[in-house]
Structure formats: structure tokens, C-alpha cells
What we know:
Helix content of chain B: 10-25%
Oligomer: heterodimer
Structural class of chain B: alpha/beta
Largest interface: A-B, 27 and 25 residues
Distance between the termini of chain B: 48 Å
Distance between the termini of chain A: 11 Å
Number of helices of chain A: 12
Structural class of chain A: alpha/beta
Low-confidence stretches of chain B: none
Shape of chain A: elongated
Number of helices of chain B: 4
Strand order of the largest sheet of chain A: 6-2-1-7-8-13-12-9-10-11
Largest sheet of chain A: 10 strands, mixed
Strand content of chain B: 25-35%
Largest sheet of chain B: 5 strands, mixed
Number of strands of chain A: 13
CATH class of the largest domain in chain A: Alpha Beta
Low-confidence stretches of chain A: none
Helix content of chain A: 40-55%
Strand order of the largest sheet of chain B: 6-5-4-7-8
Mean pLDDT of chain B: 86
Radius of gyration of chain B: 17 Å
Mean pLDDT of chain A: 81
Number of strands of chain B: 8
Strand content of chain A: 15-25%
Shape of chain B: globular
Amino acid sequence: xxxxxxxxxxxxxxxxxxxxxxxxxxxxxxxxxxxxxxxxxxxxxxxxxxxxxxxxxxxxxxxxxxxxxxxxxxxxxxxxxxxxxxxxxxxxxxxxxxxxxxxxxxxxxxxxxxxxxxxxxxxxxxxxxxxxxxxxxxxxxxxxxxxxxxxxxxxxxxxxxxxxxxxxxxxxxxxxxxxxxxxxxxxxxxxxxxxxxxxxxxxxxxxxxxxxxxxxxxxxxxxxxxxxxxxxxxxxxxxxxxxxxxxxxxxxxxxxxxxxxxxxxxxxxxxxxxxxxxxxxxxxxxxxxxxxxxxxxxxxxxxxxxx
Amino acid sequence: xxxxxxxxxxxxxxxxxxxxxxxxxxxxxxxxxxxxxxxxxxxxxxxxxxxxxxxxxxxxxxxxxxxxxxxxxxxxxxxxxxxxxxxxxxxxxxxxxxxxxxxxxxxxxxxxxxxxxxxxxxxxxxxxxxxxxxxxxxxxxxxxxxxxxxxxxxxxxxxxxxxxxxxxxxxxxxxxxx
Lengths: 307, 178
């Protein structure tokens, strides 16, 4: 299913968890892995200095510096490269990280980009809604292929492939995410859990919804899942489970993923029905990424999915 | 400022020694913890004063998760106690300078910090909780952290504990497989 995977890394310890997933996934899929690092941002158009994206220091750009960074990356991912070095190529370039990641992904036609949520490990970032770094936000918004966001250490997810949780809010973006989730589930032969949370706090059901209103909403959501998703699946894939619950969406998603021992959560990048280029990342996705024990795949553009 | 004592049985005790009549009035006041106060006491407090459950969306799932735990003996050799700390962080590059103030619960084995995410609830419920110092770090410098005496309000205490247990830990199935 994945022939070419990009692992975009800053080389910092927060990228260790995404590295594990990226190498495991590439190995499992026998895919080519592009280990990509952006050296830094040039201070002017043709500057000989770059601002290192990790340290913020000015570095003299040249073959020596590039060779040194590649050596550092090789040392950092030494264990993984020993096992999967033959199909891994280390690429570096100069520029704004998000732009360069997207440029290379498009040029190489990657099937998936694997990234950490943030370069900074500080806890405060997570508590004050800065968990998604600017690079991640831009890449997940503009990438044509799905972006796998890994925020926590994960030892086993992509090796065991036991459960995929797809969360929907019935938007067009969620439809693309479903197509991706179904493809992955079929490909690896694992159960697909389709989940929707009726948001009791959004005010959509009125100020204080009655139990009857909530139950009606749940029934309606189940009918929509049947119509929108189950009708697409066909008889050849039986491992599908549907669940609708009420509450705060990100809390219910996290509870459900934990309950089902989910290895991968698949969600749309945003929920509003607007062009993907204009959509900011959804708050529910952001909250789920912050706390999810397993990787979260963000799907925005339909291009790769449809192909 | 009025000080409310959080009793091990979950009760809020006012400065006069009687139970606080309106729990919401205690939220902004400072707290002290009875010796042996634990996460189980925190959950008892949530049951006794359900209005507090609305402070964080993670309190209800936490209570549900703890329902299946044994009624006593939920401790671990890897933890001597947990400590609520107030962190003041100055963050700089990359991005705009930023100042964050937050409360968080950390696990400790004597003086060594332990990541709570590796412990399951049945090894945490009876571990004592203490109120710690304010820690001030500048630009991610974890070596020269300054420490100060400080007070905690009841709101900070509840929010800090709830955040730490809001799906921050590894699920049981992950630790088994890992």
C-alpha cells in the first residue's frame, strides 16, 4: 500500500518515536524510506549561512556542514539504519522546513509523511494548545498524502496492526479519511472501528439536550454511518464495528481508542466543508494528537486516496 | 487567604474545622493536604462534590477508569509519592517568546522524578500526594531550574491532577505488548 514513505525529522529526541514508526512501517511495507532533514533557513536568498532549525544558531553552509549533519543523523538512527539502511536514503536541504518537506513529498510522490507533532518537548506547549508545531500544521494542511502524526513513544503499533479507529463527523473531509482507513484496514487485514461522538457541548442539540434527543441523534448518526460508509465496504471485508457515543468528542475518541486497543486513529484534518487549502487543523484532531497513545493519521486532500 | 484542608476521605475542611458548606467558594482559596492524601482521596472528593467534575472533561473518564481498581493497596515500589508542582516556563526560539504558568503532577521515588505515564491506576491510587515548590525554568534550561515556596488554590490542584490523568498515560495493553 505504501511504496514510498517520508520521515521528516529535526533529529531531536522528540523525533525518536516517529522514527520508530516510520522505520517499522517502511520495513513492513517493504517501502522506500526517505529520511529527510532541513538544514536550516538561509538568512538571505544566496546566503552562505543558515539558521539551524533545531538550535537556532547560525551555521556556515557548505559541504562540510552538510556531511556533518548527515553523519549526525546516521548516528542518531544507527540502530534502525542497520536493519533497514538498504532502502533508506538520507536527504538534506536548505530552506523553510514545511515548504521543503512538501516540495520533496510532491516531487517524489510519497504515499505518507511521518512526523512528530512538535520539535519542542516542553510540557507547557501541550497545555497551552501549541502542541502542533508550525511545520506540522503547514504540512498536514497542504500535503497531498496522509500525514502520520506521532506524539508518543509507541513500541508496537505498526507491527501488530490489530485495530484501526476511524472517527467521523460526516464531513467531506471525513469521507476521504474513511477511504484511507478502509484501505489500510483491508491491506493489513485488521478490524476497522467506525466511531462518531455526538457533541453534547457544541450547542447543536440545544442548551441542555434531553435523553430522548440524545438517543435520536445517536440513531441518526448510526443511520448515516450505514448509508455513508458501510454501504461502500462490500461483503469481502467483515471486520467492521460501528459505535456512536455522546459527550465531548475528543474525550470520547480517546476513550474509545483505548477501549478498542487502537493502533492507529484516522481522522480528517478539519471538519468544516471548505477547500483543504483554506482549512485550519480541527481542534478535535489537535486534542486527540496531544493525548493519543497511538499514532494519528491526518487526511486532508483526496488526491492520494483516490489514486 | 482562607485555607481549606483536603481530607483523606475527600471532605473539604474549612479553617474552623467544619466541612465547607458550599464547595465552589473554596475553589479560589489555598489548600493544604491531610497526611496520606492520595489520588483515591481526590476521587472521593469528586464523588462528594460532583460540581467539581465539570472543571475538567478528564475527571469523569478518570473516575470510570478507577472503578475497577482494588479498594486498597494500590501502590508501587517505583514511587514514594506524587507531587503537584507549579511550573513557570519562559520559552523562546523557535517562535515568539512566551511565558507559561501551569500546575502538573509528577511522580517521585524519593528525589528522582518518575514518569507517571508508565504506571497504571492500580499502582497509583494509594500513593501519597504532596504539594511541591514552584519551579521556574528559562528557555528550556532544565539544569538551572529555580525553586520557590508557593501556595496552590483548590482550582489549580483539581485542574493539575485532572490534566495529568487526562489520557497522558500509556494504556495497559501497550505496556503489556511493549
